[in-house]
Amino acid sequence: MTQNIIQKYKKMGIIAGAAVIVALVGVFALSGSRKSAPLDTALNEVSENASRASDLRIAIISMDKIQMDAKALKDLHKQRETFEKKLKEKVEKEQKALEKEKADIEKSQDVLSQEALQRRVVEYQRRINGLQRDIAEKAQALEASYQEALNTIQKKHLDPVIEGVIAKKKLSLVMDGRMARASKDVADLDITDEVIKALDKKISSVKMSTPKGF
Predict the structure, then answer these.
(1) DSSP β-ladder status, 173-176 and 58-61
(2) Domain boundaries defined on the chain
(3) CA distance linking residue 99 with residue 16, whole number of Å
(4) What's phi and psi for 61, nearest 5 deg?
(5) pTM above the 0.85 mark?
(6) In sequence order, what are the beta bridge partners of 190?
(7) How far apart are the first and last CA of the chain?
């Protein structure tokens, strides 16, 4: 049970795993060391105040649609695809060279001495390992550059736009559209298109830094 809770929080990215473990250990340790308070006593800490539905102005927003339709984000996706294409072309070129090397080694089995053949096999394996490391490092660098640009768009442009829309519409609550279920008859509930239009006007592209090794 404890492990399931820890994994849940890790996946959600709410708290570091170590902090969760410490917190859970503390909870279980205390539960055996003192009696719990009655429920009515605990509820004395809760006020009777609550928002009324009639007082709330609610909207929903689709982050998935923003990712797909906003100009800056579409441009960022294209930049990422360009680097991915370069990496793919490099991998294919190296693979062809390795395939040729493998064929050459197989042809020379009856010509080379056992020692010389072993050296070529070791060198071949070294090249494979090197290619694998290179691909992994470039892929990590590519993802880091992409995430950096993505964070720039969100923090410097998207978040302020959303906050501005909330202020202008005097909204009390904005929900992620993926989690909401609402009737299509409700007018002005989905603010996604308005957010996209405002974001497009504010920023149309953010240059992704060249990943290390490209």
Answers:
(1) parallel
(2) 1-37, 58-202
(3) 44
(4) -145, 140
(5) no
(6) 60
(7) 45
Judge whether 60 and 187 are in contact, CB under 8 Å. no
| Tens digit of pLDDT at every position of the chain (214 positions) | 444 444 444 444 333 333 333 333 343 344 444 567 788 888 888 888 877 777 789 899 999 999 999 999 999 999 999 999 999 999 999 999 999 999 999 988 888 888 999 999 999 999 999 999 999 999 999 999 999 999 999 999 999 999 999 999 999 999 887 776 666 667 788 899 999 999 999 999 999 999 999 9
3-state secondary structure the chain: CHHHHHHHHHHHCCCCHHHHHHHHHHHHHHHCCCCCCCHHHHHHHCCCCCCCHHHCCEEEECHHHHHHHCHHHHHHHHHHHHHHHHHHHHHHHHHHHHHHHHHHHHHHHHCCCHHHHHHHHHHHHHHHHHHHHHHHHHHHHHHHHHHHHHHHHHHHHHHHHHHHHHHHHCCCEEEEHHHCCCCCCCCCCECHHHHHHHHHHHCCCCCCCCCCCC
Long-range contact set of residues 23-31: C-beta below 8 Å, sequence gap at least 24: 28/2
Report angle CA 67, 70, 75 to the nearest 5 degrees: 90
Residue entry with tokens 């994994």: 7
